[in-house]
Every structure is written in C-alpha cells, then in structure tokens.
C-alpha cells in the first residue's frame, strides 16, 4: 500500500526539498541536459543550504524544534520574572504601604532596578543595549561575522537581566526586540552542539537559522507565529530564501506550543481575543479607517523624528547627562514620579491594550485617562529608545496606537452614533502606529493573531498600508534611524560615550 | 512641521525602497566605499526592479491597483455567471420539472455544458486546459518566454467560458487554479498599456508582476489576501524578491475590496465565518488533531497517486476514450447520473463547507450523507483533474478534507463526549487535506482567512505541517505530478492527443 502510493513519484519528506522538482523543470524546458548526471548532483550539493538534503534533515528538524522550544522557554521565563518583579513592586508600594512611604519605595526601587539594568549592560556586554532588532536585521542580511560580539553569551545574560530590571523598574520599554536578540544568541549557541556542527558550515543555512531565530523571538513575544514569519521576511534585505519558510514555521510552532502552555497559567499576562461582531464594521466606515491610518503614519514618522531629536539634543546639550548611570537614573526617577499617582500608568501594557481593544465600554479607564496616558507615555517612550538599557518599542507603539484609535473611535461614536465600535478603531490604530514606526506591513498580521480575529481584515490592511506609505514618505523606520545614530557615533566619535 | 519631520532622515514613500537603507548598511560596515559616488548609483539603477525607484512608483502603484481591481472584477463576474448557470440548471430540473423529465434535463444539460467547455478549449486555446497553476508556477520561476502561449488572450477567453461551463455543468472542479491563470493573463495584457511599457522592460519587475497576479487570482478565489501572498511565496522556487511583498499586498487589497463588494451581494455564495468558542479546543486534544493531520497527509498523497494512476490507465487501456469529447461526455454523464438523486451532491461546495464547518449540529446533512458524498466525490475529482477542461482542485480538497474531518470529529464526539467540537475537526481536516494535496503550508493561513477565525491556530498549524511532511515523504505535490504527466506527454508522444 505505502510503496504503491510512493511509486513512481518519490517524495522526500519536508517541503523545500525540491531537488526532484528542479530536475523535472529542467526536463520540461531542456535547459540542463546533464540533469541526471554528475553536473546536477554537484549543483544540488552546492545549494544544499538552499534546498536541503535528506542528510541535512536529520539535523535540521531537531535543530529547529529545539530552537523553538529552548528560545520560547527562555523568553517565557524572562517574561515571568519581569512580571513577578513588576507586580511585587506594585504590591509593596501600593497595597502594603501607602502615601509618602509607598511613593518613596516605588520611585527608589524603580531607580535602583534601572541602575542595575545599566550596570549589567555596562559590565557584561554593551551589545545588549537597545532593541537588538537592528543588529539582528544586519545579521540576517549576511553581516554575520562582523557582529560576532552581539551573539556572545554575555550579551544574552546582560539582555535577560537588564530587560527584567528595566521593565520591572517601570520604564515603558518593550520586550520584542530583546526577545529577538536573545533568541538569535540561543540559536548561535545551539548550533555549537557537536551534532549540529555541520549546519554551521553552510553559510546559507546559517542565514536561515538566524531568520528562524528572529521569527521565534518575535513569535514568542506576542504569540504570533504567522506574523513573525512575515516580519522576518520583510526584514530581509532583498532576497528571501524560500526554504526558510518551512523551517521558520517548524521552529515557531514548537515555540508557540511552549508559549501556549506558559500563557494559560495565571503567572503571566496575555492578550485577550477580541469579539467584534459581523456588523461592527461597515464598508462605509472604510474612509474613517483610512483617515486613522494616515494620521497614525504621520504620528509614527513624528515619533521616529522625536526619538532622533531627543537623542541628538541629549548628546549635544545635556552633557551633564553623559554618564550613563546619571542618565538612566534621572529618566527612571521622572518615570517613577510621573507614574505612581495614576494606576493606569502602572499596569502591564497588555492589560491596558486588552481594555482599549474591548468591544464594550471601558471598565478601568475614562477618556481623559487615555489622553493622560498618551501625553505622559509618548515623551517617556521617545526618551527610553536611546537609553543604554535593553528595550524595544513595538509594544509601546501598540499601546499608543490603541490609545489614539480608541479616542478617535469614541469621538466618532459621539458624532455618528452607536454604529461605531471604538474598540475596532483601537485595533486599527495599534496596527497602523506599529506599522508607522517599524514600517512593516506584517504588523497587520501580527494584530490578527494578537486579537485572534481576522474577520475584519479589510480596515486593518488598508490602514496599515496607508500608514506605512505615509510614514515612509517622511523618514526611515525607527530601526534604520537607530542604525544611523549608531553609525554617527562610531564614525565621528564627536559624542564620546562614558 | 512636515519638513521638520522629514529632515534629515528623508524617506521615499513605499516600503521596498531601501536604497537609503542600503547606503547606511554599507556606511556601517564599510564594505562599499564609493557608496556616495557613481558606483553606487549604477548599482541602484541596475537593481531598480528589485528595489524600485521613485520614477517607477508612479507607474507601479497604479499598475498594481489596476491589476487588483480588474482581475478581481473579472474573476467575480466569471464566478457569478457560474453561479447563475449552476442555480438555473438546478431550478429547471428540480423545482420546475420533476422525476424522469428533470433527470433527463439535468443530465443532458450537464453533458452539453461540459462538451461546450471542451470545445472552447480545443478551438481557442489548449493552454486553457487544466488548473493553470503549474504553468503559472513555472512562469514565476522565470520561464516567462517559453510559455508565452499560456498568456494569450485566447487562453483567457477559453479559460473563462470553459470554467463557467464546466462548473455550471456539475463537474466537481475548482476555480482557484483557473483564476490564477486568468489573473496572470490580465496582468500580461495590462502591462501592454503604453503607460506601463517601461515596467515590462525590467525582467525582475516582470517576475514580480506575475507573482502579484498569482496572488490576486488566489486571493479573489476565496477572499484570502494574506494566505495568497504566502502561497505565492511558497510557489516561488528558491528566492523570493522581498519587494514583491508590498506590491502583492497592494494588489490583493485592491482586489479584496472588489471581492468584498461582490460577495456581500446575494448573487454569489460566500464562506461564512466560524464561531468557535475559547473552550472548543483544549490542549489535550492536540494529539487527536495530529492524528487527523497525519491521516490527511496520507489521503493527500493517495489522492495524488490516484490522479496519476487514473490518467495513466485512461491513456494506456481506455483507448476508446482517447477522443476528448467522448471522454468528457462520459465523465459528465456519470457525474450527472450520480449527482441528481442526492441534493447534497448538487449544492455549491462553499455551502457544503459552511455546513461542515459549523460549530453546531449539521442542518442539511447526516453522517451517512457525508460519507456518501466522500465516496462519490473522491473518484470523480480524481478523474476530473486530468480532463481537457479548465478546473482546479483546491476547493475540492477543502471539501473532502472537511468531510473527513467532520466524520472523524463526530466519531470522537460519540467516544469522548461533548467536549469535542466536530466543526473544528472539519476545519483542521480541510486545511490539512489541502496541504496534503498541494504541499503548501500556507493552506493553514488560507483557512484562517476563510473561517475568519485565528484563535485556534495551534491545531491547524500543527496538522498542516504534519500533513505536508507525511505527504511529501510519499510523493510530490499534485502540481508537480501534473507537470510530470505533461512532460511525459510532450517527450515521448507515446499517447498522442486527439
């Protein structure tokens, strides 16, 4: 029975093994007459990183599975530690103590944690500072050897501890960039296991391994396998190796299983699925969503510009902040002082996003709260991007976009009546601000997976496309801007680091 | 204000314009010292098909938008004609006349329509026969000039009329392959408009245009923009040009708007969104879904093998069927005779799939009906794949997979009790059988978009991955098998066509 199905059209296991298909193509078009002979075999061996061979599979499949499981577990553990510190700090300063004592405890613990984060990065690895996505982007573009320091185990330790302290300390930084970085380091070290040594030899495979690691890191940040695969595709500079696709899917599925198990436990905060009905979006509203997308594109470009300007201003004028500890301490102090009095500013961003996305009226917040949140968070986030601590910006832009979208939706609801569902505008706002900041169209897919709903894809896709286009017509993506900032620093040495 | 945001980090509109990013990369790593000079500009001009330039944009954006709108409109019109003929035939033979008269009318009209479909293909263009996806796959792999006949306007006309007649005539063929083919022909003819002539000159752009057309065709078949983009990515042989991504998204969004408008009218049948609750899938059931995925992989491989064997058998033994009209007439006769007595076999596959996917008990069908449907349809579909009429196999494999999954789910429900939701098993079965037949992991994304739900992604992703892996270990995908069949025919001329 089995052999009957197999003969005479033999297959070879996983997709991407298109050696046979190749041969048939050349048979069909006759452009490779020695396809059955030695010439073809050499060609297949040469490109085995691209097409994969059966011998590779026995190493590749375990490697990708292991990568998914190990990276997702590591990321989940970091997230749980972060959450525990975050909650413990809140409990001690709000529930146990009150008033001035609580205030002092909250602010001082925040400052201490942020200073610890800075110390760890300074001592262990300066490569751990910042988002990590720009470096990983350049590694995926083939600059593997020139950024070897970024993939050291010291960077992993510094990134993990620094991230836990920074988020636990109350700074509004995201974890998706650091997660991607940590995942890439884990991929690098896993490939040093002797059994996987042969995979390291192949340069094409090594690029694919990094792309898969990037995917796993992003997928484990929000539980979004498909969006992460697409994001990695968009981050690649010009050519995407198609066999990376199944490898990424395999790795992210392994990772997503781990994610699934962790995030159904009560220790971690998770995104809730939205429940928009079929009538919550009407075609006539598309123009309103287009306006929102365009506006978010402008805000995204403005945010990138602000980040750049804040960084420049800090370097040129505020020379007394040139010591990294003073700098982080001051920002943490301001952040703690600003956030203590308002409960909303202290909650996990995922909780706030769930609230903003909800299709019903908001329970925790009022409109003025949302506006206050935006006004406080926007400058804080822009300042935090350039700090010498680990931290991304994805989740922050989600939060700001959701806030803007919700406000816009609530405003429209008072104008046009109850046919407007503000939660849907919050979803579109989140996706399109993230698109405006990162310039990735895959933000739309990320949001489908985050909300668990894809039935209202039209407004989200259109708004993200508009937002990315509008923002790109102003300036470059945040990650490219960060690279430019880094280049200036390295080239000119005009602004020496402490 | 605007110029402040823009300076000094200028952007250039749409994503994929990474000329600036390129330059910054080379600044960073110093591997291209003349990047500001002439050498770099030449490089950018050489690769303008890959990166796009501002001059191109004023043509590319209108082209992609137009492609999406025209192709989706054409496909929708074809679909509506199909639907009208399909329904008219049913009304005349069942509602107006009854018994023997109705039977004769149903069968004879079916045979006549199928013969018309064959005639059209024979007279206008033999390239219109079959799915069309294999040819488009080879065009996307760069064999553009060798398959010029496939992109003639005669093939478009034959494909459209032939498809309407074949589906209207009651043959269980799908429309996604023909849609992709029609969309590619439309892309070819749109690029002949003088304004878009410069786009045609660039070989890299031409490949991208075809990839976008393929995406639009698939997206317009089921209303699945993201899945279609991924499917086109997987169909590309080794390297995917990343700038194709935004072009595809732009084209499919334009197409999806048209699709959205048509399919909310009552003239066409559409997929309904599923409404599975958060408790409909529990992690402990994953092993059951894995079993289903594995089984569907075997069924998919078996189906491919059957298709191949039926074709071989027909060519070798049934020489009296070597005339194409006799062949199609006999199949249409058998199909009509078998389908008239059972209402289920006569309904639109989308309606049947909606029924099978529903989270409640089935309204139209009983379990024995589903089993009967599978037993009748499976051999019919396998026979129809090789017929000289236009017709794909995607929707048929969706239907069969949904049927198998539903039966499996209903069986499990009687064993394990009401915690099992058979509709979810139908969804997983549909995705994984489609994966087993086409060997595309993107079938999982297609099903997310078809059902409008992505909250239960884990079982679908795992089952599709398993199914594709298992099926690939037996034989090649259906499309590759079709190519092999075609190659044999062309090479050996052992089985001359009438």
Automatic annotation (TrEMBL), chains A, B:
It is a multi-pass membrane protein. The chain crosses the membrane at residues 60-82, 103-125, 207-233, 283-304, 325-341, 370-399, 411-434, 454-474. Gene3D superfamilies: Clc chloride channel. One of its GO terms (cellular component) is membrane. The keyword Membrane applies. The keyword Transferase does not apply. It comes from the Eukaryota. Pfam families: Voltage_CLC. It is found in: Membrane. One of its GO terms (molecular function) is voltage-gated chloride channel activity. Keywords: Membrane, Repeat, Transmembrane, Transmembrane helix. PANTHER family: CHLORIDE CHANNEL PROTEIN 2 (PTHR45720). This is Chloride channel protein. The lineage of its organism: Eukaryota, Rhodophyta, Stylonematophyceae, Stylonematales, Stylonemataceae.
